[in-house]
Every structure is written in C-alpha cells, then in structure tokens.
Amino acid sequence: MQDAQVYKANALVEASYRLSLYEQRIILACISQVRRDEPLTDQKLYIISAQQISEMTGTRLGTAYQNLKAASERLFDRRVTLHEAPNGQGSTRVKLTRWVQTVEYRNKEGAVALRFGTDMVPYLSQLTEQFTRYALADVVKMSSAHAIRLYELLVQWRGIGKREVTLEWLREALQLEDRYTNIRDLKRWVIKPAVEQINEHSPLWVKWDQLKTGRRVSHLVFTFGEKAQEGTKKPRKGKAKGRRGGKAPGASGAIYGIPMAVINAQARPGESSDDAAHRILEERRNTARA
Fold first, then answer.
1. What domain count does the chain have?
2. DSSP 3-state of 65
3. 142 contacts 201 by C-beta, under 8 angstroms
4. What are phi and psi of 208, to 5 degrees?
5. What separation, in Å, do the N-terminal and C-terminal C-alpha atoms of the chain show?
6. Do 142 and 14 touch, CB atoms closer than 8 A?
C-alpha cells in the first residue's frame, strides 16, 4: 500500500462527520483499495489488517491490534451528513447516512473487513470531476484525526494555496458539537496541533491566521503549498467565504499548482489532466528529494 491513493468526491470531503484516528485509518486504507478501472458496488469487501496499519504508521503491532479491534466495533455506528451530490451534479437534500453497511473484526487474522454503504459508493467511485486525490502516505503518520480532516480540506484547494472558512462551518465539518466552544481552546486543541502535524508529516507546508467580524473571531485563513516548492510560489488572491466553505475551483488555470500549459505539454497519450498533474508533481518531489 506504499503508493496507495485516496480518491474522494469533494462533496464527501466537505461533508460533516467525526471519526477517531483509527477509524480514519481503516476508512482511508479501504478507500485507497478502490479500483478506478472498475465500478464499485456495495457488495465489494475491503480488508485491512493490524499488520498493515502497523507497517504504514510505524506503531507497535500490539497497539495496532488493540486499536483496530476497538475502532471496528464503533465504525458501524459512525454516520456522515452529506450536503451535495458527487461529480458536480448539483445540490441534493441533506442526507444522513452511514460509512459502512457491514464491518467485522476477524480475530484470527487481526484484520477488519467492511463493505461501504450503498449511499457512499457514488462518492468513492467513477469520479469524473470535483474530486480530491492524495497519497495515503501523506496522512498515515498523523496521530490526530483533526489533522487528517484539515489536510483533506486544504489539499482539495491545492491549486489555489489558500482557503478561508468560517468557524461555524469548520466546527460543523469536524462535528465538534459542544466541544472547544472557546476560540482559545479550539486553537489550542484542534487547529495548532493539526497544522503542526500537517507541516511535519505531509507534503504541504501550512500557515494560518484568523479574521474578525467586529470584535469576534469569525474566520480562519489557511495559506499552504508544496514543501518542494516552498518560497517559489505565492498563493493566488481570492477568498472562499460562506457557510459551506465553497467548492474547490476547477482546473481552468492549474491543477495541484501546475499550470495547465505545462500539464498539456507533458501529458502522455490517454492520460487525463488530473493524472498528468499528479505524475508531474510526484516527479518534482522525487527530483527535490534526490
């Protein structure tokens, strides 16, 4: 699973839900197994083992076994609130559904097997537009579920390098409910640790600031970019206010910060613009590491 990729509809990235760290790891590891060259059905079974989790995250095997079992027992009850249809098909009624329809812990194998819920399938498969992709390796070392969620919300806007959200929208997206209602607690226990982990473990560097409406902090602004290109590119101007946080921009100017002119010039026969941009980005990262 070293090169596994996570594909999610932007509408799922923008959805409201809360998962623990190990629940996130289970879900993302299974999403990364979804084949892009064949339709996904709600009968497909995905399996992730404690051994795989241990190897991916660098945690002790015994710890992975214990946490995987506990997470699998809770995962069936986890729900997600969807506000939009996948693939840019327009708005939909607010839909409350479950991540999985079946989940089982296989004690002898030390593994979890699950089937995604029927309503989740369109948000994970046959995505042709308005979707977010990132490497599973970008987040597996993170030890905060909030860091993983924030990373997804930022990487969705990778080509822009800036995202502004209201506190109200962010709290709903993270399903914080009545926790961290004081802005100081929110910054101390959610925002600062999440940003630190993104900066430490992911390919992105992130900075953040706050905006006030009157005397009250009402918005957070995140500025970010590729570490391999840090200092070479400034984020585009523009804001994305609104309770829903706005949709990620289209690919008219750039994808992952790579100009369309470069993508079109270097795209291989039959390769989509998104795939070409991802390949070019990986090649640049490898060159920077060499």
1. 3
2. helix
3. yes
4. -145, 160
5. 22
6. no
- Round to whole Å and give the CA distance between 50 and 38: 27
Same domain, 135 and 67: yes
- Evaluate whether 81 touches 16 at the Cβ level (below 8 Å): yes
Residue 186 is given by DSSP the state H
Cα gap 68→22, rounded to integer Å: 6
Distance CA 187, CA 179 (A): 12
CB contact at 8 A, 152 and 21: no
CA distance 130 to 248: 7
pLDDT of the chain, 290 residues: tens digit per residue: 657 899 999 999 999 999 999 999 999 999 999 887 677 788 899 999 999 999 999 989 999 999 998 999 899 999 999 988 876 665 557 889 999 999 999 999 999 999 999 999 989 987 877 889 999 999 999 999 999 999 999 999 988 899 999 999 999 999 998 899 999 999 999 999 999 999 999 999 999 999 988 889 999 999 999 987 655 444 444 444 443 444 444 434 566 667 777 777 777 655 556 666 777 777 776 676 65
Handedness of CA 273, 278, 205, 175 (dihedral sign): positive
Shared domain check, 126 and 158? no
Any idea which residue has 């030890």 for tokens?
A: 143
- Domain identity same for 178 and 275: no
Last residue of a domain, one of 107, 141, 175: 141
What SS3 state is found at 46? strand
Q: Specify the pairing of strand 91-98 against strand 100-106.
A: unpaired
Instruction: Show the domain range for 13.
Output: 1-141
